[in-house]
Automatic annotation (TrEMBL):
PANTHER family: ARABINOSE-BINDING PROTEIN-RELATED, BLR3389 PROTEIN
The organism of origin for this protein: Kibdelosporangium persicum
Protein name: Extracellular solute-binding protein family 1
Residue spans crossing the bilayer: none
Highest rank taxon of the organism: Bacteria
Length: 425
């Protein structure tokens, strides 16, 4: 983006906000929360967005606090209902999170601002799904309660050196992936890095279920378009195969107590040849892996993924105009390119050439493939409030062997069915 275009964009932001160099309203502070690590693609991009915001808003300071994903996940309803609420924050999308808070009146309806600033024109219908919620808190229609600003999806990361040592080619099917893991087990290597104490494990089980599902199955589960049978062929394949992977030594029983960070570090240290997790790791891996060659490939078929987490403006925000200005900067071509070149998946294709390595460019190209082929299937913990913790606990039991697949699916079914009454289904 040229300096002239950037200057014009910033002037437009200032004009909308009414906060220009000549204003003398006294010092103001924008209170910002997000949970992206400083080395992640989003962390790099948002840090630059903060610098640009302060440069274009004289007299305004950004008070940024990095919060943990789990921390915000568990405390958001309580914090947003207090005087400690931030002005703008990153929050998880879906019925169980943003949808629930919107229904509780804790988030600002930003529909008018979205239209005024043209953000709706920057996002495809599929990407808008997770930003809009009806009066029941169900995603896909109704008012805008957030603005996604990146995309994400689950993929398979692999250690090229370890694959080469075993003479293994890049798998193109789940069966070929299974054969590769058998070969690693025979060589005394636990193939999968897994974090069973947080999201990674239940996302793997969901991926396995998706290998036997279609988009109608996804819509029934995620958007309540029809009845869901948690003992159908897809769900039972997911749970049974996950348990089988533990029995075969693909997944260590010790992983039940590992967090996502532990998983990522173990992969970066070369302890496991495979990690099935999200594109949000890409920039971190690119910066952190020094001792071996690595790459990624798409999971065959439907894949957990969507627009990324989104900016929301709490109802109690004291500086909503500043919050909207900050969001606008994160949606600007310069910041979206920064995100892309740091290894993230931008929502906006600016058309400018990338300075990123081909390895990082791959993540953006693969997202385009998933979007074009309509293969994005959201995430398994979205449908019901509190479902994240239920999913973590249930799949941990498959790792420890304290519950069988049928019992685990019963555990997942109960809160889902109870929530249907709350959404009028």
């Amino acid at each position: 983006m040229s300096k002239r275009l950037l200057a014009a964009a910033m002037v437009a932001v200032l004009a909308v906000s009414g906060c220009g160099p000549g204003d003398d309203d006294g010092p103001r502070t924008l209170k910002l929360w997000h949970y992206e690590g400083p080395d992640s693609a989003m962390g790099v991009a948002w840090a630059e967005a903060i610098r640009q915001f302060e440069a274009t808003h004289p007299g305004v300071k950004v008070a940024f606090e990095e919060k943990g994903f789990e921390q915000i996940q568990k405390t958001a309803p309580m914090v947003l209902n207090s005087s400690d609420a931030p002005d703008v924050m990153e929050y998880n999308k879906g019925n169980a999170t943003a949808g629930l808070l919107s229904k509780q009146g804790l988030l600002t309806d930003i529909s008018d601002e979205v239209t005024k600033r043209g953000w709706d024109k920057q996002m495809s219908a599929g990407i808008q799904t997770t930003a809009r919620y009806d009066e029941k808190g169900v995603m896909g229609s109704g008012k805008w309660y957030g603005v996604p600003n990146y995309a994400e999806y689950v993929m398979v990361f692999y250690n090229k050196d370890m694959f080469a040592q075993q003479g293994i080619s890049v798998p193109g099917t789940v069966e070929e992936l299974t054969a590769a893991m058998d070969k690693f087990v025979a060589a005394g290597v636990t193939p999968l890095a897994v974090g069973g104490a947080e999201y990674p494990a239940h996302q793997i089980m969901y991926q396995l279920a998706l290998s036997k599902a279609n988009k109608q199955w996804v819509d029934r589960f995620q958007r309540y378009t029809g009845p869901v049978d948690f003992h159908d062929a897809a769900w039972m394949h997911g749970a049974s195969t996950f348990a089988d992977w533990v029995d075969k030594g693909y997944i260590s029983k010790d992983s039940a107590g590992m967090k996502a960070e532990d998983m990522g570090v173990a992969f970066m240290q070369g302890k496991h040849p495979i990690m099935i997790s999200g594109s949000w790791w890409y920039g971190r891996l690119a910066a952190g892996i020094k001792g071996f060659q690595w790459g990624s490939f798409l999971w065959p078929g439907l894949t957990a993924g969507s627009a990324g987490n989104m900016w929301v403006v709490p109802a109690g925000s004291k500086n909503k105009d500043l919050a909207y200005d900050f969001i606008a900067i994160t949606m600007s071509p310069q910041i979206q390119d920064k995100l892309r070149d740091a290894g993230g998946v931008p929502l906006i294709d600016t058309g400018t050439p990338s300075t990123a390595a081909p390895q990082i460019k791959e993540v953006t190209d693969n997202f385009k493939t998933l979007s074009t082929q309509d293969r994005l299937a959201f995430y398994p913990d979205w449908p019901a409030p509190g479902y994240y913790d239920v999913q973590v606990s249930a799949v941990q039991k498959l790792i420890t062997g304290t519950a069988n697949p049928h019992q685990v699916m019963d555990e997942l079914a109960r809160p889902y069915q109870e929530n249907l009454a709350n959404v009028g289904r």
